[in-house]
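lol ok so funny story. i was supposed to be doing the assay writeup but got distracted and ended up predicting the structure for this chain instead. priorities right. anyway since i did it might as well share w the group, maybe its usefull for someone
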Amino acid sequence: MFQALQRGSGPSDEQIIEIIRSLIHSPQAVLKGYILDLSYYERELSDVSWAGIIRQLKLVGESSNGKPVEFTHIIELWMEDDDVRLRASTMRLDPTDGNVYSKWEREERKKPKPKKEGEEDAPEDEENAIKPLDEFALVQRVNDTDDRVRIELTHYNTLERPAMEELLVNFHEDQFIRLETAGFNPDEITESVKCRLKTDETLPLRPLALQIEGAGDFKSLLTEGVDEGALPRKWSLWK
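and the output, tada:
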């Protein structure tokens, strides 16, 4: 993969799939979930949908009867193609660190840091300080240009989105969430999703899972490194 990047090309489909498989089954993803942000990007198998690849290769997991593990929820952030192109046209990359910023993020960084009532000004830690962006130094990524976004949209509308119907056919109404997100900022989208998912924030999160390697006392692994009185681990059904 490093050699491919040196040549100016990207990873192969097989390499991308192995990366996805590894990350999906990592302790952090198993415990806290994950977001698959997959795109067209002139893949070798661009005539095969990601939805099909995920199910056929059982990337999410395999049940006891050999069938692929399905998603518990699917959230579709929907907007008109023109709105997608407009949002992409305002994305900018900082060549000094590789971070990408939307127009909303750049405007948020310009706002003064909010202070709590009675809080005095304190010198900000230089390492954690939010540095101002030089708008004139930011550049547009190739994949945010109008031509590339049009190609992405055509691919999504003709291949990826129709393939999603195969996943949605067995979903209940509360498992498939469709949000019209044009004009919404990330915070508003997040709050809308949380509201629709009806998450219970009073339930504590369990500590990160441990990979067992040559352990003798399996029971002690459930409480190893966990503070007294905190929620212990549970045995994972994931391999």
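The chain has a mean pLDDT of 78. DSSP finds nine helices and four strands in the chain.
back to the writeup now i swear
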